[in-house]
Amino acid sequence: MKVIHFVTGGFSGATSVAVELVRSAQSSGASRAVLVLRRKRSTQTARIEALRAEGLQVDLVPGWSHAATVWSLARLCRRLRPDVLVAHGFPEHLLGRWAGLAAGVPHLVHVEHNARERYTAWRLAQARWLARRTDRIVGVSEDVRSILLELGMPAGKTLAIPNGIALQRFAQADRVPFEGREAGIVMAARFAKQKDHATLLQALHLLRAEGLTPPLLLAGTGGNRHERMARSLCAELGLDDQVRFLGHVGDLPGLLMRHRIAVLSSHYEGFGLALAEGMAAGCATIGTDVAGIRTLIRDGVDGLLVPHEDRASLAQALRRLLLDVPFASGLARAGRIRATSDFARETMLARYGQLISDVAERSPR
User: Domains (ranges, CATH) in the chain?
Assistant: First the structure.
């Protein structure tokens, strides 16, 4: 069985999931899986070469126009002759399925990775038309599945497969006592319109006025414009001595396990992968109360939820975790238990593997 996973080359959370699925297929021998990336300005050649060095087959298609993407991907599909094409994310799930139909790929799967996407009336009409010719539609959380149904996707084809994390990367978390960690804050998120670095920086500014000056480490790359905006706001608020822009961090688990607090301040998510990783690392976590995050955290039990774009509430939550160490430590312990029981990558991979196998056994369209 041959499977193509088509996804953005921007190395977002969707890309991470697609990479894990290709790795899993290769290691298990269940299928021959190929990763196809839609080239972006932020596509990093070094990261692609690192994947190829692992033995993964990685192909790129142009991203400068939608027509060029569809034409190139259809041509690649005709050459590789996959049994299943899995199209991840937006607008890649539209472009990928158009290419799959043009190339006569027998089976199509659509994976929606976010709770909010740029669906114009025309794009939504395309999604609904393509849904009738798609074998399965997957939301990466129950929140996303509910939104897909609201958009008119067929209930019989639409299901949720929650994302998962590689728990073995956080195996040492219990050996790093919470009280012995640096009282610092980590937010691991690419710089993009979706992420809300501004509210976190403004909350830090409020704490600074009270004499609390915890370090903030921002891990992630992304759109240069959004990173410039964050850096400019940081300087404007007088936080340059507190905030570090780390760029891509190769050992994110190590960074998280050295610090006490992990935050995901966001406008929307599909599945707050970075927050789940913070929980697995034994951090006390804070997330914005939006779709894709609110189902990960039970407020006051294994993390804290704060209202969207509410810097005062975020500052209050940070203050509590910084000053009430026993409370923060309890949240961290509960969060780690939740992550290890509910967010295992193996569960996610097994469910996708079964879905792709079931789809491939169906009669072609």
Answer: 2-164+345-361 (3.40.50.2000), 167-342 (3.40.50.2000)
